[in-house]
């Protein structure tokens, strides 16, 4: 896995300096053509991938001083114009290159499938972008918001697909589009996906679109009569999808042990797979919630560097790319930690600290993209050793009722500090 990360960074660096990649992803043949241009294509992409969160002029000055020391620093306005020359497809292709390498190797599966959680979230965007994304209106103010949806491999901790859209976008429509994209790519690679959805997603249209794909839905009390009235712990019911086609579904009423019941339904009818197994599989869906927490609170994904729609999307996909790279490094470090501790008889297993991993890896990735190959290998070894030293225990089966709020909500809680 260390070699894979190294390989992905090497290919990313090659793409950024490849003339054919530039030609494919610039908006006009005249862009980035002058040899005297300060803001070259690799420099502009490097700045965006470094996820600038401070004042843009400060970020440009620091990047230029470190990676292009013999060049004069450009202005923030010049960078804005240069970024507008780049198509969003450049970031999509970098993500696709990385995913193709990740899934060309062995990866964790459940029931022979890649386990994919589907979930949406609301992101705040700059107020100046409200015409492009829309607003959430309260009694006193209108706040610019965007609707985000992601498909997340919960076993391998990789974001497979993601999109950012106007606030009024239906998350089911957004999820449907992402699933279709992923299924087309999965057919080419021979990977079968098992989708898990929360209770906001069940609809007859998705049932029709997923009729040949395994899925598990959590359902509320109000969906279709046949599922609503299925009171047995485990039973088969028949429903109609949006095209009036009949589908057999397995409905599971799972006792949570606190007097509450959770209702799931699936098109996996194999009785050898027990209700407890489905409960265990569905619980893994919560890992996508943790990933959204990382994106928002540790990577500051919604702290956008511009109010322009195109540049907001660039920031969004650059963060998705970096998030996957950080997680890939963590996967490697976690495996090394497990091997070292397996014979120690420790009470808990341990994993790497995500905050530390992001803090160490983010600047290293950009340096690796700009450094010579020998220095890149040295950087990887150094950073992975640091990541392995910062660990936290994995406490299984943690549960309990939510804590009641005693104080007013905090904007910057102590247990969710960032890494800058």
The ordered string of helix (H) and strand (E) elements is HHHHHHEHEEEHEHEHEEEHHHEHHE
Category from helices, strands and their pairing: alpha+beta
| Integer count of domains | 2
Please report which band the strand proportion falls in: under 5%, 5-15%, 15-25%, 25-35%, 35-45% or over 45%: 15-25%
* Overall strand count: 11
Low-confidence stretches: 400-411
Determine the fraction of residues in helical runs and give it as a percent range: 40-55%
Average predicted confidence as pLDDT: 88
Number of helices: 15
Radius of gyration: 23 Å
* Major sheet description: 9 strands, mixed
What is the first-to-last residue Cα distance? 27 Å
- Looking at the structure, what is the overall shape? globular
Description:
The protein folds into two domains: 2-89 and 299-395, no CATH class; 109-289, Transposase Inhibitor Protein From Tn5, Chain A, domain 1 (Alpha-Beta Complex). The chain has helices at 2-16, 19-25, 41-49, 56-67, 76-83, 89-102, 130-133, 171-189, 204-209, 225-228, 275-283, 287-298, 309-341, 354-370, 373-389; strands at residues 114-124, 135-137, 142-153, 158-166, 193-197, 215-218, 234-240, 246-255, 261-266, 349-352, 391-394. With 420 residues, it is α+β, with helices and mostly antiparallel strands. The strands form two sheets. Strands 1, 2, 3, 4, 5, 6, 7, 8 and 9 form a nine-stranded mixed β-sheet that branches. A two-stranded antiparallel sheet has the order 10-11. The two termini are 27 Å apart. It is globular and about 75 Å long. It is built from 15 helices and eleven strands. Helices cover 44% and strands 18% of the residues. Helix 6 (89-102) runs parallel beside helix 13 (309-341) and helix 13 (309-341) packs across helix 15.
